[in-house]
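S1.2 Input.
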Amino acid sequence: MTFAGEAALVAGKDLRIEARARVVTAQVLPFAGIVVLLFAFALDPRRNVLPTLAPGLFWVAVLLSSLLAVSRSFAIESEHGGRDGLRLAGLDGGAIFLGKAAAIGLQLLLLEVVLLVAVFALYDVEVHGLVVIVPAALVATAGIAAAGTVYGVLAAGLRVRETLVPVLVLPAVAPVLLGATRAFELALAGELGGAWRWTSLLAVFAALYTMLGVLTFGPLLEEA
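S1.3 Output.
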């Protein structure tokens, strides 16, 4: 089997398990929706601050939701010897990483579509610059998924992984929060040149964590 085939096999496994369990639709999406609603109620909409803060609030909700998705992805491998099965399957560690990151990324993208519509509606945001917003969301999601997968496997073998994952992942993806927020802000303001520069930085971040994951995931999985 080719490297890409192995990655697709792992991604398909995770997505099929998720489709049966429906954790994203039953837990992650409601959690993200509650976060967005709480921001809407906590900030007085009469002060016209919600449209200005919408990009940052959106990405905070996405990052918090990604913690649940990452924890769920590695909790699957802890049940019924799943992690041992991956080790014994003879799959390339880099392919396993790409498969798991792709599954997490696809789940986050579906979540972001719903959240973006909710934010635009609830926060009274005028939609501009989708030509930049869409690529920025794609590369930012890739960066979150890659970083979350790398640090998720670090915490996978520990009993305190539920509390350790946020401690490891959130500082690592802080550049995504900054870059994606700035890209969205500038795109909505019509400053596409600046938005593209932040999107390029997000792409560099995603590429670095993807390369790191491909090179180190195998040894990290053995140690988990």
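S1.4 Remarks. The mean pLDDT is 85.
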